[in-house]
Amino acid sequence: MLFRYLAARLRHRDPAVVRYLNMGLGIERRARLLAPFWAEHLARTRAAQARWVENATGDWLTVLGAGRLLDFNGPAVLPHFNQLRLVDADPSCGASWQRLEKLAESICLDISACLNKWIAEAAQFRGAWPETMSAISAYGTRAEAAYSVPSDALLSLNVLSQLPIVWQDGVEAILLRRFGKHFVAAREEEWLDALRPGGRMLVEQHLRAIESASPRFVLLVTDVEYLEYRREHLGVKYQRRHFAPPPVDWSTAGWSAESGVTCEVSPAIESVELTKSSFSHFLPSYRLLWEECWLWHISPLGTEEGDSGKVHRVAAFALEAG
Ligand SMILES: C[S@@+](CC[C@H](N)C(=O)[O-])C[C@H]1O[C@@H](n2cnc3c(N)ncnc32)[C@H](O)[C@@H]1O
Question: Residues lining ligand 1, judged by CB closer than 6 Å?
């Protein structure tokens, strides 16, 4: 894994590409280290695809955010399509794609079609802090057409929530370089607020790009909520190799937690609610067939750095045109 990463790093020096190489390495490394905890999320993502192809079928299938195919259910999905197009911004994914027989197109690009440009522009800002904040929040009005390609079916595979994260990470690095760690840390709420409109725009453009590509079948899998938890008794921690369930749970009534556990919940995808009515706004040509959601104990307390654990709530939405 490391050898492949280093070889890719030698070939790709553009910071816009290195960003995705690092992200890919991080995902692969964590998926191995935390395999017992990630297994259920990966299985639920694959199961949602198996349910989707009970009626989704056609010639071309496009997968956005294909990555290392960790969460792709090839055996269930591929028999329903003739040609496969895999898309990801990380050029090191190619190694995981080669073995797929139906692979007709491998595309390495930024599906937002603007993130790299936005971050490169933000690196050129020269104004003081208030002007920098206004310039960042102005990205909320920069409507851009995201990558969109005709196909019969489209699978957006755990990539939507990454778009605002890449925006945030890119701008944070710029702010730290320009204003210094202490100054930026003291104004965290302010710069996070300034980033939100642009993040929201990235999410909305992804949905609009699906509408304009007009595949008959869509499966959208994405994080919808993030939860960070802490324990009163710091000694109670998880071990990487020994599965134990998370100390929190979710139902339609909301979140619940074991006693002695405190939680902070924040929306993923910039509070864009994925409900029947919001789908009819962003994807007016589609109807929601079904949805499922589950928890991903992405960083159990004690298995990675820091004094908190992290759980994502992930949802899958199956949509059909017409
Ligand atoms: C959380 S991973 C999803 C897991 C992935 N399906 C896998 O099995 O490795 C997100 C994937 O989206 C890709 N990604 C993130 N932002 C992207 C962008 N703007 N354009 C294209 N791909 C992007 C990353 O490179 C990564 O492979």
Answer: 20, 23-24, 27, 65-71, 88-90, 110-112, 115, 157-159, 162-163, 166
